[in-house]
Amino acid sequence: MNANATQTVMVVEDEEAFIDALVVGLQREGFGVEVARDGAEALSNFDRVNPDIVLLDVMLPKVSGTDVCREIRKKSQVPIIMVSAKGTEIDTVVGLEVGADDYIVTPYRIRELVARVRAALRRSGVVESGVVDSGTSINVGEVAIDPEQHVVTVRGQVTKLPLKEFELLYVLIANAGRVMTRDTLIDRVWGSDYYGDTKTLDVHIKRLRSKVESDPGNPTAILTIRGLGYKFERPV
């Protein structure tokens, strides 16, 4: 995308008062805004709008926000920020597990939302900006990752990973045998300006284990180092 082009935010929200405030606030910050007032409209218009980022309410008419997120993730890695008045831990985890990049709870200040939008947009260009910057395939144990081709192979089988899971796996494998603290992993994958908590990282680790480990309940590759973070274990 041209760095000078207006970035488009798709706002998926059914409360008119929220819509008006979001449209005004985002346009004031230089974003283009497209609005969908229910989940079905969001899915119908997604390809036409081709947004740079999606602000997605959890509670929507017709199709829920989590189902919209799940459907978008089947075809796109566009950044998605889930928006909800709930804010319970289970809602956060569900939102992240279906593929959301971030989660913000209402009420929030428009300044905080804009900061998160900009951070998510910067992170979405992380492959181009150099976090995954090597063209060399890395093999550790039963896992091989090729950052240039964006391909992961587990026990000889190609495994599809969403962008954030791919980046997290790359950082872990590129530092195999080393303990990576939670703060370091968040900084490398989500950026130093990330506003969320470590729950996002833990959910992504859980999802990675389900795809990489032979027995995700008893991991032998992606290990938790209590009180510190995680380590990708080199085979003996």
User: At the first level of CATH, what is the class of the largest domain?
Assistant: Alpha Beta
Mean pLDDT: 83
Quickly give the structural class. alpha/beta
Quickly count the helices: 9
Classified in CATH, the superfamily of the largest domain is Response regulator
Low-pLDDT stretches are 126-134
Tell me the major beta sheet: 5 strands, parallel
User: What's the SSE pattern?
Assistant: EHEHEHEHEHHEEEEHEHHEE
Task: Count all strands and give the number.
Answer: 12
Strand order of the largest sheet: 2-1-3-4-5
CATH level 3 topology of the largest domain? Rossmann fold
Tell me roughly what share of residues is in helical segments.
40-55%
Shape-level CATH architecture of the largest domain = 3-Layer(aba) Sandwich
Whole-number tally of structural domains: 2
Beta-sheet strand percentage?
A: 15-25%
What integer value in Å does the Rg equal? Answer: 18 Å
Distance between the termini: 44 Å
Provide an overview of this structure.
- The protein has helices at residues 16-28, 39-49, 65-73, 89-97, 110-124, 126-129, 163-174, 182-189, 199-212, and strands at residues 8-12, 32-36, 53-57, 80-84, 102-105, 138-140, 143-146, 151-154, 157-159, 180-181, 222-225, 229-232.
- It is built from 9 helices and 12 strands.
- It is 40% helix and 20% strand.
- The strands form 3 sheets. The protein has a 5-stranded parallel β-sheet, with helices on both faces. Strands 6-7-8-9 form a 4-stranded antiparallel β-sheet, with helices on one face. Strands 10-12-11 form a 3-stranded antiparallel β-sheet.
- It is of the alpha/beta class.
